[in-house]
């Protein structure tokens, strides 16, 4: 079964050398892409005080440290940076990676980060409006000579974005699970869509909603590339699988019951079957999410015993 397998590397509670080690493993063992997330605080976290590397600068390092994998972010929060500034960062990152950059955009959700950093945290409806405007602005700036945009939240007047990306038409990812707005925006403007931590069943349901929006908008649903992020807490054996499940439950606490459906738990054979279920539900790519303390033995076993099943 063919499936593009990527690695989503959490830049939190770890050293840069550990991130570099992950990236080089991915680059040398045939992973399709490596990505990071865009947060100021670690998560899950009791108070947000744990170390967490900033996304744009981390992506620049990731682009420089790798040669083969696609380089991505799932997802830039449009509330943290003006979309024109994000477009400039994306174009530069694509230049640095020689055309390997994947740009994910999301409406944002981590209220603690907004509040403590003095960034306004509007209602979800407003944040979705901001995302919809940002997607349009960034798509224009990455492909057109100049961009003029008159929106409710953002205004641009003959804005240049030079140099342009190496890619003639970089993919814009719309990230999230909301059926009324996020998937509608993905159907309108997205080249790709990513969702974190659903079960295979929920992923399939979301894919159907995306298909329905495409039908209403006259969009070919096959034009939207679909991926899922799932946590990796796999054991190297049946006995070790019990230990790794405990690691997951201790890390996520009360959230474990809710997010367990989006985790790869159990033995390598069980994980192969689980990933296959995502592929059957419509996934074209799957990214294993790695949080520190990194389970290096699980990752090595995944590379040797799981990943070859999806070439």
Question: How is this structure best described in words?
Answer:
The chain is an alpha/beta fold and 311 residues long. It has a single domain (4-310), classed as Luciferase-like domain (TIM Barrel), CATH 3.20.20. The protein is built from 11 helices and 11 strands. The protein has an 8-stranded parallel barrel, surrounded by 8 helices. The protein is globular, with a radius of gyration of 19 Å. The model has no long low-confidence stretch (mean pLDDT 97).
The count of strands amounts to: 11
Largest sheet data: 8 strands, parallel, barrel
- CATH architecture term: Alpha-Beta Barrel
Mean pLDDT: 97
Instruction: State the distance separating the first and last CA atoms.
Output: 7 Å
Oligomer: single chain
What would you report as the Rg, rounded to the nearest angstrom?
19 Å
Overall geometry comes to globular
Number of domains: 1
CATH topology type = TIM Barrel
């Amino acid at each position: 079964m063919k499936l593009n397998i990527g690695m989503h590397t959490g830049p939190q509670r770890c050293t840069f050398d550990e991130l570099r080690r992950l990236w080089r493993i991915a680059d040398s063992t045939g992973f399709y892409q490596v990505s990071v997330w865009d947060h100021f605080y670690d998560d899950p976290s009791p108070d947000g005080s744990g170390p967490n590397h900033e996304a744009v600068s981390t992506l620049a390092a990731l682009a420089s440290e790798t040669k083969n994998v696609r380089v991505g972010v799932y997802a830039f929060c449009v509330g943290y940076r003006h979309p024109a500034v994000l477009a400039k960062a994306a174009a530069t990152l694509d230049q640095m990676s020689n055309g390997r950059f994947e740009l994910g955009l999301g409406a944002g959700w981590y209220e603690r980060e907004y509040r403590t950093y003095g960034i306004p945290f509007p209602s979800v409806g407003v944040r979705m409006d901001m995302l919809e405007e940002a997607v349009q602005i960034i798509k224009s700036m990455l492909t057109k000579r100049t961009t003029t945009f008159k929106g409710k939240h953002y205004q641009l007047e003959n804005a240049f974005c030079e140099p342009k990306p190496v890619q003639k038409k970089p993919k814009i990812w719309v990230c999230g699970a909301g059926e009324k707005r996020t998937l509608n925006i993905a159907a309108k403007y997205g080249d790709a869509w990513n969702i974190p931590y659903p079960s295979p069943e929920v992923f399939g349901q979301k894919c159907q909603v995306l298909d329905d929006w495409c039908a209403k908008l006259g969009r070919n649903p096959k034009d939207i590339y679909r991926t899922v992020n799932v946590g990796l807490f796999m054991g190297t054996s049946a006995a070790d699988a019990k230990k790794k499940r405990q690691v997951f439950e201790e890390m996520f606490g009360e959230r474990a019951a809710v997010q367990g459906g989006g985790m790869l738990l159990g033995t390598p054979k069980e994980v192969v079957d689980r990933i296959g279920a995502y592929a059957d539900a419509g996934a074209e790519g799957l990214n294993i999410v790695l949080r520190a303390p990194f389970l290096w033995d699980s990752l090595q076993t995944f590379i040797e015993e799981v990943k070859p099943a999806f070439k």
